[in-house]
């Protein structure tokens, strides 16, 4: 009886998160269609995203995963729009929130078997997110995004990524990783100097 009650609560948690996420998404769509208030629209979008992410973390969420995946897929381009909007508004923290959501969706287990469309600005957004996270002292986030940028093969900001990673590892006294970065720079130095 207790086990059934516990499973019911867990399923209810996934269900509650899914319901909240859908409500926020509908509010986002309503604000988007009105075109009046970008801040409200994007607040609803981020709340929906966070609730859908919560659904993916809940146990007994199987009946909500397909709907969650479809909603995350449909909100994906709007997360980019929001990141760019807040970047233009010079609201770096909000821009980072949306850029992180935009970047992180691609790495979610539910999307491993499909390729989400990659906007031409994707690498620039990743680099912006990495630098913003670095400036906000969110060093683990910054490391992750600098490495994602480096894995992209885009060499435009490659040298700067190495410099930032070197500073991060130095500040964390992670000398082994700092040495690895310096070795990568040394191997690629003919491209920089």
Give the number of DSSP strands.
0
* Topology as a string of helices (H) and strands (E): HHHHHHHH
Q: In angstroms, what is the radius of gyration?
A: 20 Å
Poorly predicted regions are 1-11
Q: What oligomerization state is this entry in? A: single chain
Structural class: mainly alpha
Report on the biggest sheet. Answer: none
Distance between the first and last residues' Cα: 70 Å
User: Mean pLDDT, as a whole number?
Assistant: 89
Helix content: over 70%
Strand content: under 5%
* Discrete helix count: 8
- What general outline do the C-alpha atoms trace? globular
Structure explained in plain terms:
The chain has 193 residues and is mostly helical. The protein is 79% helix and 0% strand. Helix 2 packs antiparallel against helix 3 and helix 5 packs antiparallel against helix 6. The termini are far apart.
Question: SSE layout and pairings?
Answer:
Layout: H1 2-34, H2 38-57, H3 62-88, H4 92-105, H5 122-135, H6 139-151, H7 158-171, H8 175-192
Helix pairs in contact: 1-2, 2-3, 3-4, 4-5, 5-6, 6-7, 7-8
What's the gist of this structure?
This protein is an all-alpha fold and 193 residues long. The chain has helices at residues 2-34, 38-57, 62-88, 92-105, 122-135, 139-151, 158-171, 175-192.
What characteristics describe this protein?
193 residues, mainly alpha, 8 helices, 0% strand, disordered N terminus
